[in-house]
Amino acid sequence: MSNFNKHETIISAGIDIGTSTTKLIISRFSLRNVAGATHVPRIEITDKEILYKSPVFRTPLQDAVTINVRGVQEIIRSEYEKAGIQPAQIETGAVIITGETATKRNASEMLHQLSDEAGDFLVATAGPDLEGIIAAKGSGSYEESGKGGRVIANIDIGGGTANIAVFQDKQLLGTCTMHIGGRLIEFEQGKVRTISPPVERLLEEQGYTLQVGDPQDAAAVEFVTTYMAEAMARILKKEVHAQDHVLLLGHEPNWKQPVDTIVFSGGISECMYRHASDEEQVARYDDIGIQLAEALLRNQSLQIFEWQEPIETVRATVLGAGTQTTEISGATIQVAPHELPLKNIPIYQYDFEADLEAGLSNFENAVQQAVALYDSAKEGQNFALYLSNLPYLGFRDVQTLAKAIVQIMNQRPRPEQPVILVIQSDHAKVLGQTLAALKVKQSIICIDQINVETGDYIDIGKALTSGVVPVVVKTLTFHTT
Amino acid sequence: MNEELIQQITKMVVEKLEAASGGQTSQQSSNEQKVQLFSQEPIGHLAAERPQQSPSGAVTFHSTTNEAKPQRNIATIKPKPTTAYGKPKAETTTPTEDQLAEYRKKTPARIAVGRAGSRPKTKTWLQFRLDHAAAVDAVYGEVPDELLDRLGLFQVHSKVADKEEYIRRPDLGRKLSDEGKALIQERCKTSPVVQIVASNGLSAKAIEENLEDVYLSLEQSLNNLNIDMGTTFYVDKGRVAVMDDIGEVLKPDVVVMLIGERPGLVSAESLSAYLCYQPRHGTIEADRMVISNIHKGGIPPVEAGAYLGTVIQKILKYEASGVALVQKEG
């Protein structure tokens, strides 16, 4: 039985497997009932304490296109041991495969293996937009955007990609991802060792030649870093030139407001600000990272923005993944404990537009569309139905709604799967109980006060002592190349 | 007398009369200045004074006449804001309309509603009066019989004779009338696990708006949990502690009292659910517990009913309520 008055803690892990580095963070969240004694409880995360920060490891690779899964597992296992944590203790968190690593051949396979290794409720997630958002939360840009209405762009540059996320008043305005990173040209003993395909295309388009074996100080190398800084400034100003497309990964910048402040995070920002320079292991990566950082610092076009130093440089993403991805559901919910945790549940949003009758008349299409969207092969991929903008509901309205839900959920390709409902307003418990009273045969997972939309994926953790469930909302999965 | 002067004066008088009878504003010569001591235009943060989206019962105005705005010839000069020491005040940042809207969303309090001079705007003032009147109406209103019939509740009275006495004598509201005691003895199931009681308390409106949804949802919740329910009834002009009298007569394990809260200016229709494990004469207040703020703008009544079921389950498990329950729960 849920006890709302107890102070409760959960352990969260964040693991970031990037193009060049891998790091891990363990933190502890305190949960408390923040509602008054005479109110219905509301459980919130009231404190986040970082228990352990791993050193920055080189991401183990087997070859250019394969991640060394065993090597990654090895790092996680030994770091858990150093932190004094058993995988079973971890109740929430996120594994993020970022940058170019996500395009590696066995990325998806590795995520599944890691989920088993790293803890029962650890989310496997990736995607450039989400990466940028999480980095902005870890670097402090997100928090900062809540003060004083400035438009803040967080630019997280690692080995392979630059992930831009733009915020104002803690609202995401837009994202953009570019092929700008330290590891796009690598050196060995003063000579070029590798050149990544986007850089090769850029050099070709711009009429420069650079080959493996050329000296490190070739004019073409200088050109690449300078061009990247210039292109970054143009993208931030939304003046995308045709020749910049080669550096874009995915869509063009999609924010509308002009950017006021820029914050650099990620490995390149470490080269700028040297937050971790007192740590014993000083990274020597033998790539264009330092030159790129200098080019960005020197660039005149970037000087029109206000620059702000991040609170976390190279560990921004892992910090965001470990401490900023978990949300807590409403306290009055109805969940079937044996079905949890649930992972990677796609969301289908159904908007009632504050009119129950009109909403219900079209309700049947919702399931058909959700099935068409997520389970076109009818293989039984379940989904969560997100009910938003419900009007004020009386008891009889709830009955009508519950009956409609039962009816449409039975039209799924595999109707026996659990009925997963996410409700925007505070109605989860009564709806769950009404479904139970209707003696539905499926298990019911009915949670509320989480904001999601079609296209999101959620993970729902095991119910905690206070009866709430931790929820991790993911905005996108893999980027396709 | 100077003929010319007389002519001139007559002409001026006629002109004035003509102007007055024609309903036209008198034409003033261009070099004549109209003096106005006070500004006719509002000053201050105009952004803050834009009308907001009001809830139901909003009062709106529209002018019935077309008035030409008097032309001001003297510009009002706004004095520089000064501190007590006469120094100019430091520049403070004015919140934008977006920010004010954000603040308003966070609280039902009347913030950023603007002002007219040193007073609230008429609209704000009338809204305030309306809310105050609604609060008074809630206290003096009656629960419609039709609602009680629909839910199948019979009615008993406390020892209070009328509303005035109800307000002046809380002690009488805590006692069931003798007829009431006899009636519940006769009509109610004795020793039920859960006895639900409804009462208008200080807001009949709260019962009218929320009782049905809370009650039906609670009933469903208890059915799901297989918890036995007694015969529900309605106490007119009751206070929370009337449950002690009810406990003595019917001997239930748990009493749930759904009672109208003292109305305020934010909501006059807020309902509370008081719960107590085995209330009897001599029960102390620390053993009672409450889930308050049940209304449209607070916790939705249907959700409150569903939640109450699990609270009752917990009370039955620990055989305690209020502070004792928190202690037993550890």
What are its keywords?
heterodimer, A: 481 residues, alpha/beta, Nucleotidyltransferase, domain 5, 8-stranded mixed β-sheet, 6-stranded mixed β-sheet, 13 helices, 23 strands, 29% helix, globular, B: 330 residues, Rossmann fold, 39% helix
Provide an overview of this structure.
- The complex is a heterodimer of chains A (481) and B (330).
- Chain A is built from 13 helices and 23 strands.
- By secondary structure, chain A is an alpha/beta fold.
- Chain A has 3 domains: 125 residues, ATPase, nucleotide binding domain (Nucleotidyltransferase, domain 5, 2-Layer Sandwich), CATH 3.30.420; 170 residues, Nucleotidyltransferase, domain 5 (2-Layer Sandwich); 134 residues, no CATH class.
- Chain A has an 8-stranded mixed β-sheet.
- In chain A, a hairpin with a 3-residue loop joins strand 1 and strand 2.
- By secondary structure, chain B is an alpha/beta fold.
- Chain B has a domain of 191 residues: Rossmann fold (3-Layer(aba) Sandwich), CATH 3.40.50.11240.
- Chain B has 11 helices and 6 strands.
- Chain B has a 6-stranded mixed β-sheet, sandwiched between helices.
- In chain B, strand 2, helix 8 and strand 3 form a beta-alpha-beta unit.
- In chain B, helix 8 crosses helix 10.
- The N and C termini of chain B lie far apart (109 Å).
- About 2% of the residues of chain B have low confidence.
Helix segment tally of chain B: 11
The percent range for helix content of chain A is 25-40%
Total number of beta strands of chain A: 23
Work out the strand percent of chain B.
5-15%
* CATH-defined topology of the domain at 139-329 in chain B: Rossmann fold
Query: Looking at the structure, what is the overall shape of chain B?
Result: elongated
Our measurement of the CA-to-CA distance between the termini of chain B, rounded to an integer number of angstroms, reads 109 Å
Main β-sheet of chain B, in a few words? 6 strands, mixed
**So, CATH architecture of the domain at 139-329 in chain B?**
3-Layer(aba) Sandwich
Multimeric organization: heterodimer
CATH A-level architecture of the largest domain in chain A: 2-Layer Sandwich
Mean pLDDT score of chain B, rounded?
83
Round the Cα radius of gyration of chain A to an integer and report it.
24 Å
Strand order of the largest sheet of chain A: 16-23-22-18-19-20-21-17
